[in-house]
Design brief:
Elements lengths: L10 E3 L6 E4 L10 E4 L2 H9 L6 H18 L11 H20 L6 H18 L6 H31 L7 E4 L16 H8 L5 E5 L6 H12 L6 E2 L4 H6 L5 E4 L3 E3 L4 E4 L2 H11 L3 E4 L5 E2 L16 H4 L19 E4 L6 E4 L2 E3 L3 H10 L1
Parallel strand pairs: 4-5, 4-7, 5-6, 7-10, 8-11, 10-13
Antiparallel strand pairs: 1-2, 2-3, 8-9, 9-12, 13-14
Helix pairs in contact: 1-2, 2-3, 2-4, 2-5, 3-4, 4-5, 5-6
The chain binds 5-S-methyl-1-O-phosphono-5-thio-D-ribulose.
Length: 367
């Protein structure tokens, strides 16, 4: 049997440890192409252009990217104890420059800065240990990324278990964008309950919004869930009310890029529409979020920076011919904020948080 998309790592280290290897997600589902990212510019571009995308995967890519870049930074002197101070200065200044640069690739997903800050913490603690030379610091950074990857898998699985407790066999689930394996290291967040349910014979029906303008639902979610053998009818974004009205949707699961302290959640543009429609039909709307996506420093959704993207994504990128007048003004925010009042629960790896979220999320983060 041929290799399925689910057999690939979303983000990995090359065998020679000199490159980040990703699946170029802009080519899916038509072509599965692995590409190597070696320079800061290549890593930045891959994140900005959504060759790698999804909040947790962006974080892993940046963490691995900064490890590769740090490993490739030339030291001014041989890596010995007597040269440590000068070498450390050089390594640290390259590290901080790369960290700042990569953090700017996409502003909304908090996992990007979360992962880079975590790597910076490792760098600092190694720097404080005078027994460690530059080679040791570089190895420690690689080890930390592997820990992040393993944690991501465990976190998604745990979200899956909690999410599965909220549905039953035969249910219809609606999802928006791709919060699947392609957005994480395995299982996804919003798709984790679905994968676990599938493993246990739940016979779920996963209605998947195509997700204009970049079609992550159609190109990625429909692709990876069907590769797993899951029933995944595809919908245009403007069909969610129509399908909900039929009574075939029992729950909505979506991922998110940043959850504010009060539970407002930023996710792919169109998510808040799904939430509002779900509420009008009395369908539970669940946000699946690793705690690394919760940002206690952002008090509410009004403070989340929303990425604005190229107008061409709306007017021509996916069409044979341009589908809007030349020079038309285009509004193209990549994300929107779903008000916490529309969210039935936020499912994290530590449990199911319910309103008031400022209390429940705080308790989970402190646990
Ligand atoms: O622009 P994208 O494709 O990176 O947007 C992705 C999403 O909105 C996902 O739902 C979110 O990052 C969660 S991924 C587990």
């Amino acid at each position: 049997m041929g290799k399925s998309i689910l057999d690939y790592d979303t983000v990995a280290l090359s065998d020679d440890k000199k490159a980040v290897v990703i699946i170029d997600q802009t080519l899916l589902p038509n072509e599965t192409k692995l590409i190597e990212l070696k320079t800061a510019q290549e890593i930045w571009d891959a994140i900005y252009l959504l060759k790698v995308r999804g909040a947790p995967a962006i974080g892993v890519c940046a963490a691995l990217g900064i490890s590769v870049l740090t490993a490739g930074t030339a030291l001014p002197l041989p890596d010995t104890q007597e040269n440590r101070d000068r070498n450390l200065d050089a390594l640290r200044s390259a590290f901080l420059k790369d960290k700042e640069y990569l953090a700017g690739a996409r502003p909304t997903a908090v996992n990007l800065t979360w992962a880079l800050e975590r790597m910076a913490g490792v760098f600092d603690s190694c720097a404080a240990d005078r027994d460690l030379l530059m080679e040791d610091i570089r190895n420690r950074l690689y080890e930390e990324v592997e820990l992040i990857r393993q944690e991501d898998i465990a976190v998604c699985r745990s979200i899956g278990e909690y999410g599965l407790s909220l549905i039953k066999p035969g249910d219809g689930i609606l999802t928006h964008c791709n919060a699947g394996q392609l957005a994480t290291c395995r299982y996804g967040t919003a798709t984790a309950p679905i994968y676990l349910g599938h493993e246990r014979g739940y016979d779920l029906h996963v209605f998947c919004d195509e997700t204009r303008p970049l079609l992550q639902g159609a190109r990625l979610t429909a692709y990876e869930l069907s590769a797993a053998g899951i029933d995944v009818p595809l919908l245009c974004d403007n069909m969610c009310s129509s399908i909900m009205r039929t009574g075939r949707i029992q729950a909505v699961f979506v991922g998110c890029d940043r959850v504010a302290a009060n539970g407002d959640a930023a996710n792919k543009i169109g998510t808040s529409v799904v939430a509002a429609v779900a509420k009008s039909y009395g369908i539970p709307f669940y946000v699946c979020a690793p705690l690394s996506t919760v940002d206690p420093k952002t008090p509410d959704g009004g403070h989340i920076v929303i990425e604005q993207r190229d107008p061409d994504e709306v007017t021509q990128m996916w069409y044979k011919k341009r589908m809007a007048p030349e020079n038309i003004h285009v509004y193209n925010p990549a994300f929107d904020v779903t008000d916490n009042s529309l969210i039935t629960a936020i499912i994290t790896e530590k449990g199911i948080a319910r309103a008031p979220y400022d209390v429940s999320l705080k308790e989970m983060m402190e646990a």
